[in-house]
């Protein structure tokens, strides 16, 4: 079911809560407090939802290079998915957060990268679900048994060496997904050096949604990417390969399927610029 809509409404999800083939995953997180999302999850979440943590579950340990959120180890990630009852290619997975897809889109991209297409992100996220007075719960579901054999799509990725070789080619566009002031090097709250990859253009990830965290109408999304349609290759990055997935989600939703992720992002790129 590769043509599944990458966005699902609260209304549609509410009607699917009793679906035995559905797994809901809460991805709420804050970069400044790694435990915050799980604490919020324990207080209240969508009924039946499991929780995955950006640092612990959706990333692997940080090293000198590779960025602040390296992609998770395939077998470790697969075991976590299996413990939630996910069956590769069969289970419908719905991811949500409370920050305009910032972390749910990472899970959406990861699942598809590892070969699982049946995944969507909740439009409006947790605030939208609550705002519509849909049911909530505070119980943690029991572990289940799944079957997930990762089938990574390595051609969806670009590493730093490939990026250096390709970024200046006429038919390649590199998109920086961070806020514009970080792209311009005026502000850098996380990484040791401010700036952006030479030659990159800027399309902030927050531009995909409105202030309520709902995805923009299709015509507006198409407008975001209209200037890049002629490029043979689109490479997307952010600080550490997380919020770039929001832009990839938008592209996928309007039929742009050739975009690749530089998962190390600026945090990987600038790690080679830091003088030891």
CATH level-1 class of the largest domain: Alpha Beta
Number of helices: 10
Q: Low-confidence parts lasting 5 or more residues at pLDDT below 50?
A: none
What portion of residues belong to β-strands? Answer: 5-15%
Radius of gyration: 18 Å
For this structure, the CATH topology of the largest domain is Oxidized Rhodanese, domain 1
User: Count the strands?
Assistant: 9
What's the rounded overall pLDDT mean? 96
- By secondary-structure content and strand pairing, the structural class works out as alpha/beta
| Largest sheet, spatial ordering of strands | 1-5-4-2-3
Strand and helix order = EHEHEHEHEHHEHEHEHEH
Largest β sheet strand count, sense and barrel closure: 5 strands, parallel
Terminal-residue CA separation:
49 Å
What number of structural domains do the residues give? 2
Helix content: 25-40%
Explain this structure to me?
The chain has 276 residues and is of the alpha/beta class. It folds into two domains: 7-131, Rhodanese-like domain (Oxidized Rhodanese, domain 1), CATH 3.40.250.10; 154-272, Rhodanese-like domain (Oxidized Rhodanese, domain 1, 3-Layer(aba) Sandwich). The chain has helices spanning 10-14, 36-43, 74-83, 104-113, 125-131, 160-166, 180-183, 218-225, 244-253, 265-269; strands at 7-8, 22-26, 50-51, 92-96, 119-122, 172-176, 201-202, 233-237, 259-261. The strands form two sheets. A five-stranded parallel sheet has the order 1-5-4-2-3, sandwiched between helices. It has a four-stranded parallel sheet with strand order 7-6-8-9, covered by helices on one side. Strand 2, helix 2 and strand 3 form a beta-alpha-beta unit. The model has no long low-confidence stretch (mean pLDDT 96).
């Amino acid at each position: 079911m590769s043509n599944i809509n990458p966005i699902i409404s609260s209304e549609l999800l509410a009607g699917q809560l009793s679906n035995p083939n559905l797994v809901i995953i809460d991805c709420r997180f804050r970069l400044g407090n790694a435990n915050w999302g799980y604490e919020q999850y324990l207080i209240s979440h969508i009924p039946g939802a499991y929780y995955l943590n950006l640092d612990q579950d959706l990333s692997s340990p940080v090293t000198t290079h590779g960025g602040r959120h390296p992609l998770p180890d395939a077998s470790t990630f697969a075991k976590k998915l299996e413990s939630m009852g996910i069956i590769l290619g069969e289970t419908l997975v719905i991811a949500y957060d409370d920050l305009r897809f910032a972390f749910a889109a990472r899970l959406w991209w990861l699942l598809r990268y590892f070969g699982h297409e049946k995944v969507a992100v909740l439009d409006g996220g947790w605030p939208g679900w609550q705002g519509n007075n849909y049911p909530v719960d505070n119980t943690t579901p029991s572990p289940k048994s799944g079957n997930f054999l990762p089938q990574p799509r390595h051609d969806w990725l670009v590493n730093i060496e490939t990026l250096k070789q390709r970024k200046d080619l006429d038919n390649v566009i590199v998109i920086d997904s961070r806020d514009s002031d970080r792209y311009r090097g005026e502000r850098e709250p996380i990484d040791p050096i401010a700036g952006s990859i030479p030659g990159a253009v800027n399309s902030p990830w927050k531009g995909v949604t409105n202030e309520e965290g709902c995805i923009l109408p299709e015509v507006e999304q198409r407008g975001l990417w209209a200037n890049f349609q002629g490029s043979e290759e689109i490479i997307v990055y952010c600080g550490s390969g997380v919020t770039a997935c929001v832009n990839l989600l938008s592209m996928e939703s309007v039929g742009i399927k050739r975009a690749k992720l530089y998962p190390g992002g600026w945090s990987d790129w600038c790690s080679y610029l830091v003088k030891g």
